[in-house]
Amino acid sequence: MVDSTGTAPAGERRTERLELRVPTSRTQLPAVRAMTGDLAMRMDFDLDAVEDLRLAVDEASATLAAIASPGAPLVVVFEVGAAGLGIHAWVPTASGTDVPRDGFGWAVLHTLVDSVDAGPSTQADVPGGDGGEGAVALIALEKNLPAPLRRPVGGADADLSVAR
Length: 164
Prior knowledge:
Blueprint: E1 2-5, E2 15-23, H1 30-42, H2 47-67, E3 73-80, E4 84-92, H3 104-112, E5 115-122, E6 135-144
Antiparallel strand pairs: 1-2, 2-3, 3-4, 4-6, 5-6
Helix pairs in contact: 1-2, 2-3
């Protein structure tokens, strides 16, 4: 799913939103890593930043898969903006389930991206949710482009399939 959100100031493009839903099985989680790497490369992140994003999404996906309700999908919403890439990953969970924020995996997330946040939420509050009150666990990541690379994205002439 692709969506252009919000309005952009004159001369700038809107944020592009892409949504990916995959089963939480180990055989399907690599699709999230592949999508992340592809988007990061098209946004002109350097190779180290692309790999950092791939690793961060791997860690977030594995963490969420471990606490997901049985049979629930992993939902990942990518927001490609002028300043960088925002990623909201979430899974439906039992009410009261929180995201583990201790241990090595959480420390790794903090070193790989510019900001990370996690916690319980509801379907009404997460990007791509169904608007209901169902419980979810969310990990939100942001990776900023270096200032000289920031440029408008989206709009009528935008094509994420063509490197600029």
